[in-house]
Amino acid sequence: MSLPPGAAVTTVLGVNHWLLPAVLSQMLASPVL
User: Fold this and answer.
1) Distance between CA atoms of 8 and 15, rounded to whole angstroms?
2) What angle do CA 11, 14, 12 make, to 5 degrees?
3) Residue 1, number of CB atoms within 10 A of its CB
4) Contact partners, residue 11, CB within 8 Å, separation at least 6
5) In Å, how far are 4, 16, 29 from 20, measured between CA atoms?
6) Cα separation values, 26 from 14, 31, 32, Å
7) What is the pLDDT of residue 1?
8) What whole-number distance in Å separates Cα of residue 18 and Cα of residue 9?
9) Does the pLDDT of residue 28 top 60, yes or no?
10) Does the pLDDT of residue 4 top 70, yes or no?
11) 3 CB contacts (<8 Å, ≥6 apart)?
12) Taking the complete model, does pTM exceed 0.70, yes or no?
């Protein structure tokens, strides 16, 4: 089962857009805490 390339790109971008702010906020928050 292979996804169309567009779906793979959308999934990767969606995961990055969801993960990056969370990781950045964790990294910024941990020295404060």
Assistant:
1) 11
2) 40
3) 2
4) 3
5) 24, 6, 14
6) 19, 9, 10
7) 54
8) 14
9) yes
10) yes
11) 11
12) no
